[in-house]
Design a protein that fits this description.
The protein has about 450 residues and is mainly beta. It has 2 helices and 21 strands.
Length: about 450
């Protein structure tokens, strides 16, 4: 989809809603509807000290506008509804010399700087029968262990496809669906789905699973996913919160992924880069990753400690379209995606073959001392035992020193959030994030400092 003004997206959304409502002639459709405009101002500074980087000190700044309309459901045994979203981002800074062509923040223009504006829009038709809902369209934003929508830049990803969510059984939530395309956080064109290093897209990502709330403290999860011609993935999770007393708790969070190759995976174009690390079989997905996290909370304090291990045969795998062109012959804008592990940090992922990571985080909620809306945290991740054997990786993958040994890396992240609780600025939020990453000689982004300053405000229209 080419770049269009947000006003046009809003007009199309309003037109679609006005056509749908009279034809359905159901009061509940409008009664339960919500509409809002979200404003996000985002400054992004990625200071890559690597002398070989095209742009060592990226500085991008943009203002985003997002319109959301979420309808209710019509009355009757089967209810129908419509959700619409329109997004526009406008460049405030990001000219030549400060903007790399492979930026994950905004798409590039022909002059080497960032585009003046970019946009995307989508809509989902929805159906509800009893406690089961079906959504189909191109504005899906799944938040599941096997597929997470990325919202860490000025605009978020959108997927097309269908999702079914059922809560027919008490304490069970079952989810299944299929996705075919995605529009990246820094792109204005749809692309097929892929993995890191893959240059050929797949139009079929299927998933199914569920959450079982065993009791008030314990939740169990299982999900399965398949990206055609790339990988199969099983996920099992356990979350338990033990309430010590009204002011204390101890949380256990266990996550396990088992991933294997599918179809053409490993063939030219369908190869997985193993996150730039070792692969038992070049370009193929072959991985087991587990993570254990424990959090002790006391009043406003929360201390989390954990450990994660990635198997020796290959890196962890998740959806990532960085190598697939977006329709204009450009791969940038499609990269950048989240995965369901704590090591999904500000700068790095800590997900290479053999990597063993130990991590911790301390956070504090200042509401406990009379400052509601203010939160702060600091986190540290240290990874070692990283397997590096470029000679056995996908041809063309570079960025490592080639000595074939074990390597180390670390990252420190700080975050401060404040949301105004009253007055004229009520609901206005400010977030400051900083990440400092240091890797081994030859690693991509081996010496990087990243700063993000974000202002958010949502205006409710109805």
């Amino acid at each position: 989809m080419s770049s269009t003004p947000l006003a046009r997206a809003i007009a199309l959304a309003a037109l679609g809603a006005s056509i749908a409502v009279p034809s359905l002639a159901q009061a509940e459709f409008l009664k339960d509807s919500k509409a809002s405009i979200g404003l996000r101002n985002f400054y992004y500074n990625n200071d890559n000290h690597d002398s070989g980087a095209t742009v060592q000190d990226e500085k991008d700044w943009a203002q985003a506008f997002r319109f959301d309309y979420i309808s209710g459901f019509t009355e009757g045994t089967v209810g129908f509804g419509l959700d619409v979203t329109g997004n526009l981002a406008v460049k405030l800074d990001g000219g030549q010399g400060n903007h790399p062509n492979n930026s994950s923040f905004m798409p590039s223009d022909t002059d080497g700087g960032g585009k003046d504006n970019w946009s995307h829009a989508g809509a989902n038709a929805k159906l509800r029968l009893s406690k089961t809902e079906l959504r189909a369209g191109n504005a899906l934003q799944p938040m599941l262990p096997v597929v997470l929508t990325n919202d860490s830049r000025v605009m978020s990803q959108l997927y097309d496809g269908g999702m079914l969510t059922s809560k027919e059984f008490d304490d069970f939530t079952l989810t299944a669906g299929q996705l075919g395309h995605v529009i990246g956080r820094a792109s204005d064109n749809w692309t097929s789905l892929s993995v890191a290093g893959g240059t050929r897209g797949s139009n079929q990502f299927r998933f199914a699973g569920g959450d079982w709330k065993v009791n008030k403290e314990l939740t169990l999860q299982y999900y399965y996913a398949n990206l055609e011609n790339y990988y199969n993935q099983h996920f099992a999770g356990l979350t338990h919160v033990y309430p010590i007393n009204d002011n204390q708790s101890f949380k256990t969070d266990l996550r396990y992924f088992k991933s294997s190759d599918d179809g053409k995976n490993g063939e030219p174009g369908y190869a997985f880069s193993n996150n730039g690390g070792y692969a038992k079989n070049a370009g193929e997905v072959d991985n087991t990753t587990w993570s254990a996290m424990f959090t002790y909370s006391l009043g406003g304090h929360a201390l989390m400690l954990g450990h994660q291990r990635v198997s020796d045969d290959g890196g962890f795998v998740w959806l990532n379209q960085g190598g697939v062109n977006d329709g204009n012959g450009r791969p940038e804008g499609n990269a950048g995606s989240d995965f369901y592990l704590f090591t999904n940090a500000v700068v790095n992922q800590f997900a290479r073959a053999g990597e063993q990571s130990t991590f911790g985080q301390y956070s504090y909620d200042f509401a406990k001392v009379g400052i509601p809306g203010l939160k702060a945290s600091i986190a540290y991740i240290s990874g070692d035992n990283i397997k590096d054997d470029p000679a056995r990786n996908t041809p063309g993958v570079t960025g490592f020193d080639g000595i074939g040994g074990d390597h180390k890396e670390w990252e420190r992240d700080e975050r401060i959030d404040y949301v105004f609780q009253e007055g004229a600025l009520k609901g206005f939020g400010v977030t400051l994030r900083h990440g400092a990453y240091r890797g081994y000689a030859g690693a991509a982004n081996a010496d990087t400092d990243q700063t993000r300053l974000i202002f958010n405000y949502t205006l409710q229209l109805m």
